[in-house]
Design goal:
alpha/beta; seven-stranded parallel beta sheet; two-stranded antiparallel sheet; P-loop_NTPase; AAA_dom; DNA_Partitioning_ATPase; Chromosome partitioning protein
Length: 265
């Protein structure tokens, strides 16, 4: 099983939409067995997946993967499973500093027990640098970081890489040497001079962190089809609108590149 965590220290970047649509892509297009874990107390990933009713929704709440030793046999027997976020318990975890080591250990142990049951595990995390995000980064093979093309997000790339506790380089050096950054993924991209300038600056200063494509670097354009698909709980390509088909034509090559980097295709 390949485990991918979506992580960013800024909210509002469309991270959950990328997580949901990637899960649909892996399961429905690539025919892979997919486990998706929502560690974000905002529960956007859980809401979309529940609404679509395409995946089996586990009775097990995501917080318990951290707080308790859970065996993979305790979750539903299906080829596409969501372990949903629970607001209150997830929020409490940062205040339990004495349990942080056991939280990460419990999550790691759980993933080992489902290693043969799924091909891909996708973990959506909260935008705060806390134990939930750290635990996910410690147990994952890959990390993908959606960002918006504004100066605040670009300035935050340094924290993503070099934060004292959850910076990717620190984790690679001390806790998870196999963690691989797939890349920074500009999301909600608009054809404005401001965003074009920021993308050019990003490409100049952080080219090695972007996802290479045949025609430049990966990015996902802003489209009304994405929030509509999320609200309906549907894959973008099943939205039944021209906007959905157009958006999917642009997004699919990006997802294929991510899957290729992960060795899934």
């Amino acid at each position: 099983m390949k485990t991918l965590v979506l992580a960013n220290q800024k909210g509002g970047v469309g991270k959950s939409a990328v997580a949901v649509q990637l899960a649909y892509f892996f399961n429905l297009v690539l025919k892979k067995r997919v486990l998706i874990i929502d560690l974000d107390h905002q529960r956007n990933t859980s809401k979309a997946i529940r609404t679509g009713a395409i995946a089996a929704v586990s009775q097990l709440a995501a917080s318990r993967l951290l707080s308790t030793k859970i065996d993979g046999g305790d979750i539903e027997n299906a080829e596409f499973v969501l372990i949903p976020a629970d607001n209150a318990e997830l929020l409490k975890m940062e205040k339990q500093a004495d349990k942080h080591n056991s939280f990460a250990t419990n999550l790691h142990t759980f993933l080992k027990t489902v290693d043969e049951r799924f091909d891909v595990c996708i973990i959506d995390t909260n935008p705060n640098p806390d134990i939930r995000q750290l635990s996910a980064l410690v147990v994952s093979n890959y990390v993908l970081s959606p960002i918006q093309l504004n100066q605040e997000a670009i300035d935050g790339i340094g924290d993503l890489l070099n934060h004292d506790s959850i910076g990717i380089r620190k984790i690679q050096a001390t806790l998870n040497p196999t963690l691989q950054l797939i890349g920074i993924l500009p999301n909600l991209v608009e054809p404005t001079p401001f965003q074009r300038d920021n993308f050019r600056d990003l490409s100049t200063h952080f080219a090695k962190l972007l996802i290479p494509m045949t025609n430049g670097f990966a990015a996902i354009k802003k489209s009304t089809a994405v929030p509509e698909s999320q609200a309906a709980g549907l894959p973008i390509w099943k939205l039944g609108k021209t906007s959905g088909r157009d958006a999917w034509a642009q997004i699919r090559p990006v997802f294929e590149q991510i899957a290729t980097t992960m060795g899934v295709i």
